[in-house]
Amino acid sequence: MTALRFLVAESETPEDRERRRESVGRSSGETYLDTLRAIVPEAVCELVRPAEEGAAAPGVEALREQDGVFLTGSPLHVYEDTPEVRRQLRFMRDVFRSGTPSFGSCAGLQVATAAAGGRVRENRRGHEAAFARRITATEAGREHPLLAGRPAAWDALAIHTDEVERLPEGGTVLAGNGVSAVQAAEIRHEGGTFWGVQYHPELPLDEVAAALRRQAKDLMEQGLARDEAAVDAQASLIEALHREPERRDLAWRLGVDRQVTCAAQRQVELRNFIEHLVRPVHRARGRA
Q: Taking every annotated instance into account, which residue ranges of this chain make up the domain Glutamine amidotransferase (predicted)?
């Protein structure tokens, strides 16, 4: 059997990438690679940065050689007409045209939405920081393989300021919550299929803690914390739970359960994407 080939598309700016590396030692794409290799150790994984000027983004034919394309989170706002956003959207349109299954976390969902003709905006109900709470599947989502294994309601790691306002034609809302109506979706566009979530199934808890510290001023402006000490206290609890995920007292203080504390449960959408979409297409293309 031919090994699965995964392409991770990172859209951090060089400055944001270095800030992230300073706090957690990895860029968003490098974290994604680590998670995918843990799920499918034999997979051949590659990292590209299609939003960067001068970067060699693969075209449609090269993308067809991949079995799955993964879009990371990003500080880019896809409703802003910048060269970086235009390059990222052009890449995503090529992904759709290639027919290779694709998956996106957080901004990855927003990129796919905008590339296919939907709309993204700043989150009208404020930021989600650390956790997206009480996510529930829609009627379509309850039967969709992306969410297989999720309970009736669940929490997930999340940190975002933008949201999907309207999915494009060919889009289906699979889950939402009180903050963002689109927390999970499928988009079918120009022969390609995308599954995505507004949260972060690829992240470990300590990286969310670090993100809180990096965005402390924004959290204070949003009224989510009174001062940096409050942000640091919350981040410290999350870091402690990362080190000792079986600590029930820490989970209780943070109000989370095994949907958050167990790595396999956090990653359920990634695992479902690989098993229910990537592997069947891999076989259909004669690579098994």
A: 63-205
Question: Same structural domain for residues 93 and 160?
Answer: yes
Same domain, 237 and 132: no
> Per the structure, how many domains does the chain have?
2
Identify the band that residue 55 occupies on the pLDDT scale cut at 50, 70 and 90.
confident
> Are residue 126 and residue 165 in the same domain, yes or no?
yes
- Per-residue pLDDT, 124: 87
* pLDDT, tens digit, 9 for 90 and up, residues 147-204: 999 999 999 999 999 999 999 999 999 999 999 999 999 999 999 999 999 999 999 9
Domain containing residue 182: CATH number: 3.40.50.880
Distance CA 153, CA 50 (A): 35
Q: Classify residue 229 by burial, with Cβ atoms within 10 Å: 0-12, 13-18, 19+.
A: exposed
Taken in order 196, 176, 178, 123, is the CA torsion positive or negative? positive
Q: Report the relative pairing of strands 68-71 and 102-105 from DSSP bridges.
A: parallel
Instruction: Provide the pLDDT confidence category of residue 12 given band limits of 50, 70 and 90.
Output: confident
E-strand ranges in the chain read 5-9, 44-48, 68-71, 102-105, 119-122, 128-137, 153-160, 162-166, 171-176, 184-189, 192-197
Residue numbers of the domain that contains 249: 205-258
Q: Going by C-beta distance under 8 Å and a sequence separation of 6 or more, which residues neighbour residue 250?
A: 237, 240, 241, 244
